[in-house]
Amino acid sequence: MVVDTVLWDPSDSLIDLGFFALRYYSMFFLLAFVASYIVVKKQFVKYGIDVALMDSLTVYVVLGTLIGARLGHCLFYDFRYYSQHPLEIILPFTFTPEFKITGFQGLASHGGGIGIMVSLVLFCRKFKLKLWFMLDQIALVVPLAGAFIRLGNLMNSEIIGKPTDVSWAFVFLKIDDIPRHPAQLYESIAYFLIFGLVYLQVSRYPKASGFYFGMVIFLIFCFRIGVEFIKEDQSAFEAGLLLNMGQILSIPFILTGLVIMYLKRGAPEETELKIARQ
């Protein structure tokens, strides 16, 4: 069978001046937060919440995402190594086999999700906002941010799919010469669609009761379980497992989403002030 493949070998950087380089992944990571900021700010205006709180919310969520995602990778995917090199969890360089500046390589979305939830609990306690309200607002933009980040993964030729003969296969030349599923692109498209679906629902039925938080984590992690079947394992220990670590970690999120949707399905619409403030 003749396969029409996409030969994928982009530069790591959009701009490289020698002394400064703007990497595609960094650009998409920034776009994820900028787009999320714009959408959540619009929701704050809609519900009459002081927009000045957006700066504090951004700090909480960014730190929660990065810390959670980093710890998630180190604990769930590479615990054996980092248990022996704990300083490398928080330092952007390695000591062995030689000193090398690496940056923070390794972020796990499941850990990032947990980090976001913890940061929102702390934020709501400090600024006296209803937790379910804030969970709905952030859940609205989680798939949007995830879509941009997966595009960054695509540009980095990482989190690649398994070999395939589909006509839209990608050959990630930085990895090998084998046609593979562009799993990062599948996830990005799916997350954009989830964002569009939930945004339309929120616009039509603005309950802000926690139901949409449950819906988002249910949809995202259901898709995550499915797409993992056509992705290469992220760690060697996953080889031969019936479900890989990404799928195992997705199950609690799916169950949590189902429970929340069930409990919040009949939550009455509230006034803007009652929704936002405790």
Description:
The chain has 278 residues and is mostly helical. The chain has helices at residues 24-46, 53-77, 79-84, 87-90, 109-127, 131-155, 183-204, 211-228, 245-264, 272-276; strands at residues 6-8, 13-16, 21-23, 93-94, 100-101, 170-172, 179-180. The mean pLDDT is 83. It has ten helices and seven strands. Strand 2 (13-16) and strand 3 (21-23) form a beta hairpin. The protein has one domain (20-276).
Tags for this entry?
about 280 residues, mainly alpha, 3-stranded mixed β-sheet, two-stranded antiparallel ribbon, 10 helices, globular
Briefly, what is this?
With 278 residues, the protein is mostly helical. Helix content is 60%, strand content 7%. It has 10 helices and 7 strands.
